[in-house]
Design goal:
Layout lengths: L1 E6 L3 H11 L5 E7 L2 H10 L5 E4 L8 H11 L5 E5 L4 H10 L3 E4 L4 H12 L4 E2 L1 H14 L6 H8 L3 H11 L4 H8 L3 H15 L4 H10 L5
Parallel strand pairs: 1-2, 1-3, 3-4, 4-5, 5-6
Length: 218
């Protein structure tokens, strides 16, 4: 069982995310706090949860300040952000403070839960929509061209895999891609995993980030 402390200044929002998180039997929300100060009070009097999931904009103590204080006092604690804010500076500040994930509140159900599960399993996570926005920023500030062919050869990416990668980057599911290219869902799943393995990335979001960073996708 994974235990989570949920920190958000809106009770209705906390209630909603509690329902989402506890729809998985292996997740339990063991505490709630309305701001960073309340979260610290909880941590001082209770066992350390497996994950602290915090909003950014809160009265009394904001999320980034909370992350700094938690990491100072509880270095082993894992903290992820769950926020509507998708500002690049705020995201960067959160990770610099010690966050292991940044999940957008505008994410769909699967993306949100997948993000929480990945950070609970010890990985880092960034929502797809935020990752693509960061890539747009990177593209605008680093427009130097790359040799796409040499990258294809280096990572042994085929034309079919490139086409599937393009569809993945557009947000299509395995089933939808299978229908579009007239292949089975299992075949698409295999291509997706091969792309992850070939590029040495961790998951689909990481794969898409890699593709844009290396100019495989334009």
């Amino acid at each position: 069982m994974h235990n989570i402390l949920l920190v958000d200044d809106h009770t209705l929002v906390r209630n909603g995310f509690r329902l989402i998180l506890e729809s998985f039997n292996e997740i339990a929300v063991i505490g709630e706090a309305g701001n960073g100060l309340e979260a610290l009070e909880f941590l001082n009097t209770n066992p350390l949860p497996d994950l602290i999931l915090t909003d950014i904009s809160m009265a009394e103590m904001d999320g980034i300040t909370l992350i700094h204080k938690v990491k100072d006092k509880f270095p082993a604690a894992r903290v992820a952000v769950l926020s509507m804010i998708e500002d690049i500076t705020t995201i960067a500040d959160s990770f610099r403070a010690g966050a292991v994930g940044y999940i957008s509140k505008s994410s769909n159900y699967d993306d949100m839960v997948n993000g929480v599960i990945q950070v609970l399993e010890g990985q880092r996570y960034l929502s797809m929509s935020i990752g693509l926005a960061l890539l747009d920023h990177f593209e605008a500030h680093d427009p130097a061209p790359s040799d796409k062919r040499s990258i294809f050869l280096r990572y042994a990416i085929s034309e079919r895999e490139l086409h599937i990668l393009e569809l993945i980057s557009q947000g299509f599911t395995n089933s939808e891609i299978a229908d579009l290219v007239f292949l089975s869902k299992r075949t698409i799943e295999g291509h997706r995993q091969q792309l992850i393995d070939k590029t040495g990335t961790k998951n689909t979001a990481d794969l898409v980030r890699f593709a844009f960073q290396h100019k495989i996708l334009q």
